[in-house]
Specification:
alpha+beta; 6-stranded antiparallel beta sheet; 34% helix
Length: 131
């Protein structure tokens, strides 16, 4: 069963069958998907809690930008984002950032949890291609 929390510009979901917490944030053309933990989920919606900031401490899965700052672009950080966030209506621009540029962006701007998971995925992909 899916359990939701929602606020202005964000929505979070707990899937009790998968024991998985995920969230999305969106604002002015920016759209993000995250894997979060129980502690973050529990705090969402509480007075004085800035939900976007809290959600962004989770593991970043996907980012789509469609705003006046630059060309519409999607950045796939975790290839399983759509499965992990199956409840979300995902914003897609159709212009996916190449994996190499995503690696650079993750190394520069993401938190340690996101960087470590990205490295594990890349190592796993490399092992599979070597076999």
């Amino acid at each position: 069963m899916l359990h939701f929390k929602k606020g202005i510009g964000w929505q979070a979901c707990y899937d009790d069958e998968k024991n998985l917490y995920t969230a999305k944030t969106s604002w002015r053309g920016d759209y993000h998907l995250y894997e979060i933990n129980e502690e973050i989920f529990r705090q969402l919606g509480e007075p004085g809690v800035y939900a976007d900031e809290l959600i962004h401490t989770g593991r970043h899965l996907y980012y789509s930008q469609d705003n006046p700052i630059g060309p519409p672009t999607d950045m796939v950080i975790d290839e399983n984002y759509a499965t992990l966030c199956s409840w979300a209506v995902i914003q897609r621009s159709g212009n996916v950032m190449p994996s190499e540029l995503t690696d650079i962006a993750v190394d520069l701007w993401e938190n340690e949890e996101t960087r470590e998971q990205r490295k594990k995925q890349k190592e796993s992909e490399k092992k599979e291609s070597d076999e």
